[in-house]
Design brief:
The protein has about 800 residues and is of the alpha+beta class. The protein has 4 domains: about 50-145, Nuclear Transport Factor 2, Chain: A, CATH 3.10.450; about 160-340, no CATH class; about 355-580, Elastase, domain 1 (Roll), CATH 3.10.170; about 620-675 and about 700-705 and about 715-795, Neutral Protease, domain 2 (Orthogonal Bundle), CATH 1.10.390.10. It is built from 16 helices and 27 strands. β26 (about 770-775) and β27 form a beta hairpin. α3 (about 165-185) packs antiparallel against α4 (about 195-205), α11 packs across α13 and α13 crosses α14 (about 715-730). It is globular, with a radius of gyration of 26 Å. This is Extracellular metalloproteinase. Its EC number is 3.4.24.-.
Length: about 800
């Protein structure tokens, strides 16, 4: 099997990875002064990567479980060395500091990064999941070849600088030609788009042999500026700036201000090189640069070689990139992802609850319900001091102000708090601290009118802006509720959630969500940027000019939930400090699918219905996806094989298939366990313990130590298993691996009582145990075969439904 890596852009609909895309306005809507926008997302295949999802597989490989009393980190070290065997010269590893133990399940998630010649292998990742001395699952993409000598990495003509892109570029161009018409027919974000010129341009830029002029070359491998300028030349959406970089390379290079961050053992060529660079064209903050290795396919395509690259973290106006560019000229972009102490907790003074006139939780949009007055949700676990308090030391609006007050907390009367900063962004820029937000005064009663009138199209924007107070209050309310909900299901501080202050509970602070309403950089979209833990997530919500009056995406909860779920899945997959695990192909597609699944699950009710995504905002009954989400295979025929269809190479189309699979699986769990009207777990007791109520099972599953809390009903259990599965799956997961991680999560949580229910649910949509793919490519290509088989224990008439009854397997029509 040959594996190539693509230079394709990840483009599509609702919130790509950074989760939004180029903004398009229909030709008759001339009121949309939008910036050009493109987003890169591609990388090499890792044919040697593996994921083992059961302890049985691991024992078969020869690792013996250790005593439950052994520290999980010690178990991990023994396991790593067992997997690696005799440590090769110049090869080692480090356990990352974002490793943590899940408070509910007791599983310790250990994240490991490979080192060669004391340099990181940027995509050499291992995630190990440990409980009671046993490795219950692990993923591994460590480089398995022979480590080069430190000197070889810097030798001219070294095979580390081999350019393996010739066949990749040919393959990518052929793929584009094959999909040109089908992509034009795909409905995306309320418009029919032609195949994006961005896609063609980046392939031409990054593949053309004539692209690298002599001025981009450098004899100094320690000088990353030429490589960075090459990336900015490709990444900028500004065609004029791109041309200027070509024509005035030396001038741009010399304008950069470079500062060393960490340079150990400066006398050695193999030393750690890390810098920041300022005055980088089209970057809005200092660029981080680090010399690392990355893996590229070998000539045969069945293994990888190491390539020396500069890894950049580049924050731009509309993108936030992690990119690897070859250290030696001619510079090539190898891979790029668009990301998008124990102390008492002081209590703020007079924590009186705010109220909001909003579309309440469960009301997806104005077409399905009315606004009502709801109270601030005081959850002593998720938001111990409510939504409107923030420590003065963590308040970005006070960073340049000398505070005379000695008060620890600042109580606000605006949409500004520890979890979320919500405000308008009519100018479409990245500034947010001084942007307008409503002030409800001492009462904190966020009660504002909402009654937009139909106007001439030329006045529609001004009409929408009249209701900015309502819009921002709604965005603040929804975002805080999603924060609290995901917290209660395990997306807490150690797992990398978004908070300015972490209450001494671990994780990195100062990363609350920056939530911009009515963003002026475009229409008919939404996006979310997810840098690693400790850096603010950034969400931008747009107006939709699909109807008059304009429709405000801030008022459609499903869109907001979809965006925030990108932050959840990115931080949980591969660990809080690795935002590069869901960048493209099936993994990038599942990043979109989780967003749709969570949004649909949250809006659902006990009486089953099919649901469309984004139908109100887009003013389109079917919504912005190819199909509504439905268990009826006639209404939504998506199966694993659907990914081979023309038009399904983008992450959003891939995500639709994954979300449909999860929707079907969740309905099978509901059939077995019933339905909970309330997705929020019970309020915690005064001592912080959580009562079971009617939410959790009386007798929890699991083994050893304290039993985990297990949701009692099918819909809440689905949410828990999906989130726990994200923690167990490897970096850059496939559909198969994400499926296996969810099944493994059930084994941890319930001792596998839903094993057959889960397998049958996935098999309904072609992801059974005999599903397979041949010729898989990084951007999602390959030839897939639906699989409807399940493990032998579940094969008797569809397996047990949990009540002693046998279920007949239901298969949609095979495509």
């Amino acid at each position: 099997m040959r594996h190539f890596f693509s230079t394709l852009l990840v483009v599509g609909s609702l919130a790509g990875h950074i989760y939004g895309h180029r903004q398009h306005t229909p030709s008759n809507y001339d009121e949309a002064p939008v910036r050009a926008r493109k987003t890169l997302g591609f990388g090499p295949a890792h044919p040697h990567a593996e994921y083992h999802s059961t302890p049985y597989q691991i024992r078969t490989n020869g690792f013996t479980p250790m005593d439950p009393s052994v520290d999980p980190m010690d178990v991990a070290k023994v396991f790593i060395e067992d997997v690696l065997g005799q440590t090769a010269p110049n090869m080692s590893y480090k356990i990352r500091e974002d490793s943590y133990t899940d408070k509910n399940t007791g599983v310790t998630h250990v994240y490991v990064r490979q080192l060669v010649n004391n340099l990181e292998v940027a995509d050499g990742d291992m995630n190990i999941n440990i409980k009671n001395g046993m490795v219950i699952s692990y993923g591994n993409s460590f480089f398995k070849g022979t480590a080069p000598s430190p000197q070889a990495a810097f030798e001219e003509g070294s095979n580390l600088f081999r350019d393996p892109r010739t066949e990749a570029c040919t393959s990518a161009r052929e793929h584009l030609r094959a999909n040109r018409q089908s992509y034009a027919d795909q409905y995306v974000m309320g418009t029919h788009e032609p195949i994006p010129q961005d896609v063609v341009q980046v392939i031409d830029d990054n593949c053309a042999s004539a692209f690298d002029p002599p001025s981009f070359a450098s004899n100094d491998l320690g000088d990353f500026r030429p490589a960075l300028l090459h990336f900015m030349h490709t990444a900028t959406p500004n065609a004029e700036l791109s041309k200027e970089i070509e024509n005035a390379f030396e001038e741009f290079k010399n304008k950069m201000s470079v500062t060393p961050v960490n340079h150990l053992d400066s006398g050695s060529q193999g030393s750690l090189l890390e810098y920041t660079a300022e005055n980088v064209p089209d970057a809005i903050s200092p660029v981080k640069a680090k010399l690392v290795y990355t893996q590229v396919p070998n000539q045969a395509g069945d293994a990888t070689d190491l390539q020396l690259v500069w890894r950049f973290e580049v924050e731009m106006q509309d993108n936030w990139y992690e990119a690897a560019v070859t250290a030696q000229a001619p510079h090539k972009i190898v891979h790029v992802v668009d990301w998008a102490s124990d102390a008492p907790i002081p209590t703020p003074e007079e924590p009186n609850a705010a109220t909001y006139n909003v579309f309440g939780w469960g009301i997806n949009d104005p077409s399905v319900g009315e606004r009502s007055i709801v109270k601030e949700n005081f959850d002593s676990l998720a938001s111990p001091v409510g939504w409107h308090a923030i420590p003065t030391a963590n308040d970005p609006s006070l960073r340049n102000v000398r505070m005379k007050s000695s008060s620890f907390w600042r109580n606000t009367t605006t949409t500004w708090g520890n979890n979320v900063f919500a405000q308008e962004n009519w100018e479409g820029q990245n500034a947010y601290i001084d942007n307008y937000r409503p002030d409800a005064g001492k009462s904190k009663a966020f009660d504002f009118p909402y009654d937009p009138k139909e106007t001439d199209r030329t006045d529609a924007l001004a009409e929408a802006k009249k209701y900015i107070n309502t819009t921002v209050a709604q965005l603040f309310y929804t975002t805080n509720l999603v924060h609290d909900l995901y917290y209660r299901y395990g997306f807490d501080e150690e797992a990398g959630n978004f908070q300015q202050y972490n209450f001494g509970r671990g994780g990195r602070e100062n990363d609350g969500v920056i939530a911009n309403a009515q963003d002026g950089s475009g229409y008919n979209n939404a996006n979310f940027m997810t840098p690693p833990d400790g850096q603010n997530g950034r969400m931008r919500m747009y107006l939709w000019n699909t109807a008059v009056p304009f429709r405000d995406g801030d008022l459609e909860a499903g869109i907001v939930i979809h965006e925030l779920t990108h932050g959840l899945s990115t931080r949980l997959t591969g660990g809080p400090l690795n935002s590069g695990c869901l960048g493209w192909g099936e993994s990038g597609g599942m990043g979109e699918g989780w967003g749709d699944f969570m949004a649909t699950t949250i809006r659902a009710n006990k009486e089953y219905s099919d649901y469309a995504m984004g139908s109100w905002a887009a003013n389109r009954e079917q919504g912005i996806r190819n199909y509504v989400y439905s268990t009826n295979a006639t209404v939504n025929p998506s199966v694993y094989k659907t990914l081979d269809k023309p038009g399904y190479w983008g992450v959003h189309a891939i995500g639709e298939v994954w979300a449909e699979m999860l929707w079907v699986v969740s309905q099978r769990l509901i059939e077995k366990h019933g339905y909970s009207e309330e997705l929020f777990p019970p309020a915690p007791n005064a001592d912080g313990s959580v009562p079971r109520g009617d939410f959790y099972r009386e007798s929890s599953g699991g083994s050893g130590g304290e039993k985990p809390l297990v949701p009692k009903h099918g819909n809440s259990l689905s949410v828990q298993l999906v989130i726990n599965g994200m923690k167990l799956q490897p970096c850059r997961p496939t559909f198969f691996q994400a499926r296996d991680a969810i099944i493994a999560a059930d084994q941890v949580l319930t001792e596998g009582e839903n094993f057959c229910t889960l397998w049958n649910g996935f098999a309904e949509r072609g992801l059974g145990s005999d599903a397979r793919i041949e010729g898989q490519t990084p951007w999602g290509g390959g030839v897939r075969t639906n699989g409807y088989a399940v493990p032998s224990v579940c094969q008797d008439d569809g397996g047990d439904d949990g009540e002693g009854k046998k279920k007949k397997k239901k298969h949609p029509k095979k495509e």
